[in-house]
Amino acid sequence: MSATQRLDRIFVPLIIALSVVVPIAVAILFYMPDTLRPDLGEGTRALPMIHAILNGSTAILLVLALIMIRRKNVTMHRASMITAFILSAIFLVSYVISKISTPPVPFGGEGTVRYIYFFILISHILLSVPVLPLAMFALYRGWTNQLDRHRKIVRWAYPIWLYVAVTGVLVYVFMSPYY
To answer: How far apart are alpha carbons 175 and 179 in whole angstroms?
Structure first.
């Protein structure tokens, strides 16, 4: 058995498990009764802006990573992608903390802006689910130099991840008057 096969036996099931557990946990948080939410203080009010900053920074890093790989600068490409992944992981943890501690805030916009907001929000939520496994598999395949498999995954992972990062910022912009 090759080293790659041994790593696959560990990391592929781990990625699959995280890809199932994390979305289920986040979905459960949406239905959490307000009476079960812990009071984590006023500091959690700043989390939506922090989430937008993390998403915006991730989007910038993803674009930078694309530029770097097109210039054949693999070192900077890897650094950008790993940093984007770390920021996304920090976002996810912070988002969970936010959802645990703060009841949902309704969108107050009306008319056309309401339809635009909900289109962006729903597409953002739906596409955020496959981003986790796609990004983890893309990173793993790149890290282990399985470049053909990496490229096949990235064809899907990159545009979806970039869309989710950008629309995460847009959701904040739409919601900021109501926080």
So the answer is: 7
